[in-house]
Amino acid sequence: MIKRPKGTYDLFGEDSKKWQYMESVIKKILKTYDFNYLRTPTFEETNLFKRDDEKSEMVTKQTYDFEDKSGRKITLRPENTAGAIRAIIENKLYLEKNKNFYYIGSNFRYERPQKGRFREFFQFGIEVINDRDYLVDFNVLLIASKILKTLKIKSTLLINNIGSESERAKYNKELSKYFTKYQEKLCPDCKERLSNNTLRILDCKVCSSNQFFKKAPKISDFLGKDSKEYLNKIERLLKEYKINYKYDTNLVRGLDYYSDLVFEFISSENQALCGGGRYNNLIKDLGGPDVGGIGFAFGLERLLNSFTFNDNDKLRCFIISDTLQKDYSYRVLNKIRDSNFYSKLDYSDRNFGKKLKSSLKEEPDFLIFIKDEEEKNKTVTIKNTKTQKQETIKEKDLIDYLNKFYKGNENA
Ligand code: HAM
Questions:
Q1: CA pair distance 120, 139, nearest whole angstrom
Q2: Tell me, what's the pLDDT at 411?
Q3: Across the chain, what does the average pLDDT equal?
Q4: Which long-range contacts (CB under 8 A, 24 or more apart) does 374-381 make?
Q5: How far is CA 191 from CA 97, 179, 196, in A?
């Protein structure tokens, strides 16, 4: 039997319902924030990701690269920001009135698979094309937080200001000097990072327990007045809008295009649900205008894992009729569905008892019985499966009846 490739998975059953629900919640929220859907190819020219200024491990070690039949160098996208920016430049979308974009799609990273880490995984993300502005940037944090709150997912927001290019360059120099003193104690990966990506040492789970690690210079000591004021404004808004956060000067993120604000939302299982930040040079570096951007991406598998389905879309009504009332029952079914209640009808000609038994297995809120009497009198007999209360009501009053019930049971 052929099995799925390592680090991939199939989506089905309850998870596929959860997935679709999550996607619909996200899309609904983004509509209120005025975002446009942007879809880019899953593979791009390798050069888009492998740039001289991008030394991150994700880009240098984890990409799926290949040559197509004409010898073009191609890479499966490891993330969606570079592709989104390429599309925004190529299609001149930076000239549009609305410069808010979102995407949902798969990404590929050759990583060691484990819980919440796949080789093909899905991200939902946004990119906002705008120069640094504390309100625009805070708004991006607010959107991510709103999504998590709406899905009732507990998380902690970590933020850091990694400063402007010049502030970071000074910091990098000091950090490099500092860690060089402890070179022998660094793990093999961090030894390599010392020469090409010093900031990433701060992110190392292996080295972080060392005493010398805790005394390393902090970026906060290298920020100028402007950067400090910007961070203060963001923090003031986070407090005003009651978004719990921690200022973490070790948060550096895995990609090199960031400057100023970077952030992550961490789950209660200590996994990054969402990561993002500001990028001021990426658009220019990819051949576009000199304008900045900010965005984030959620890992949808991780979101799914933290999300408990409070199934508002659960089966509301199951109609059971005798063979002879099929047409009438079908009419009632469609009336209920037109009012957006998830409902079913057993179309089979099995006897009433058998239909009742199997319908109960699906745990509907209501059973609706339709026999001769009901059809004749244009009524339905409705039974609340929790309270066992059963009554016969006019068919024309059924939707009002259901609406009233769910209004009084908002969280049902
Ligand atoms: P990232 O932190 O590399 O950022 O990925 C964002 C999210 O994708 C992570 O927080 C995590 O939830 C999920 N993720 C990453 N790798 C995997 C994996 N192997 N398996 C499952 N989930 C994973 C970016 O990709 C940036 N493009 C985000 C961004 C948008 N920055 C600005 N705009």
A1: 29
A2: 46
A3: 93
A4: 374/325, 374/328, 375/324, 375/325, 375/328, 380/332
A5: 47, 9, 9
- CA nearest to 323, candidates 373, 370, 377, 393: 370
Placement of tokens 């989506």 in the chain: 11
pLDDT, tens digit, for every residue of 325-372?
899 999 999 999 998 888 999 999 999 999 999 999 989 999 999 999
Q: Is the CB of 127 under 6 A from ligand 1?
A: yes
Residue 265 CA: which ligand 1 atom is closest?
A: 10
Does any ligand 1 atom lie closer than 6 A to the CB of residue 282? no
Distance 198 CA to ligand 1 centre (A): 21
Distance of CA 23 to the CA centre of its chain: 8
Which tokens sit at 370? Answer: 């339709």
| Ligand 1 mutation target, pool 302, 303, 304, 305, most atoms within 8 A of CB | 302
Task: State whether the beta carbon of 277 lies less than 6 angstroms from ligand 1.
Answer: yes
Residue 410's pLDDT is 53
Residue with tokens 């190392």: 204
Instruction: State whether the beta carbon of 227 lies less than 6 angstroms from ligand 1.
Output: no
Helix (H, G, I), strand (E, B) or coil at 406: helix
Q: Is 293 in the pocket of ligand 1 (CB under 6 A)?
A: no
Give the whole-angstrom CA distance, residue 335 versus residue 396: 10
| Closest ligand 1 atom to Cα of 295 | 33
One-letter identity of residue 350: R
Q: Which of 44, 62, 108, 123 to mutate to test the pocket of ligand 1 (most atoms within 8 A of CB)?
A: 123
For residue range 174-204, list pLDDT tens digits in order: 999 999 999 999 999 899 888 888 888 998 8
Q: What are phi and psi of 46, to 5 degrees?
A: -55, -40
The pLDDT of residue 147 is: 96
Q: How far is CA 269 from CA 46, 95, 156, 232, in A?
A: 34, 41, 11, 29
DSSP string, 133-190: -HHHHHHHHHHHHHHHHHTT--EEEEEEE---HHHHHHHHHHHHHHHHHTGGGS-HHH
Question: Could you tell me where the beta strands, DSSP code E, fall in 255-349?
Answer: 261-267, 272-279, 293-299, 317-321, 343-345
